[in-house]
Amino acid sequence: MKPVPDATSLRRAPVQRRSAERLTRILDACADLLDEVGYDDLSTRAVAQRAGVPIGSVYRFFGNKRQMADALAQRNLERFTARVTERLEEATGGGWRAAMDAVLDEYLAMKRTAPGFSLVDFGNQIPVGARHAEPNHRVADRLTDLLSGYIDREPDEDLRRTFLIAVETADTLVHLAFRVAPEGDERVIAEAREMLRAYLARVLD
Fold it and tell me: pTM of the predicted model, to two decimals?
C-alpha cells in the first residue's frame, strides 16, 4: 500500500484498507488538481468529484483544503524518504557524497514528475510559524535521522544544523533552476551540487 500521511495531519486516521485507499484517491486527486487549477482555485468539492468519493469522505479526513495540502506534503516527504532510503541501500560506497547525490537526485525527480509537487512539495502552503511546521525543518530532521548512520555521525544538533543549511541552500537554488527552465536548468543544478559538496566537505570530511 502507498504511504499515507501521519495521523496527526488528519481529522481521522484510516483504519481499514478501504478507508486508506479512499484517502489515497483523495490525495491523488488533490495533487492532480493543484497542477491543473492551482492552490487558490482548489476546492474540496472538486477533489471529491475527481476522486469519485462523496464530499463527506473528504471532510472525514480534512477540515479544509489547507489541511489537505499539508497531508499531501507529508505524503511527499514519506515518499521522498523511501526513495532516498532505497537509493542508499543500493549504493556501494561513496560516503556522504553519494548520500548527497541521492537526496538531490530524488528531490529533482519528484520536482519533475510528482503531481502537485511544484506547489506543495514538503509543505510550502503551510504558514511560517513554529519550527516543526516549517517544511525545510521537516526535511532536515528527516535527513538527520536517515543519514547519520549512513555517514557514521552522531545525529546531534550540529549535524542537524548542517543539514538544515544544506536543505535551505538546495531549496533556493533548485527553485531558481526551475524558474530558469521548466525542467530545471542543468547549469544551475550543477552549480548547486558543487556548492553543497564544498559546504558539506568542510563539515563532514
Answer: 0.85
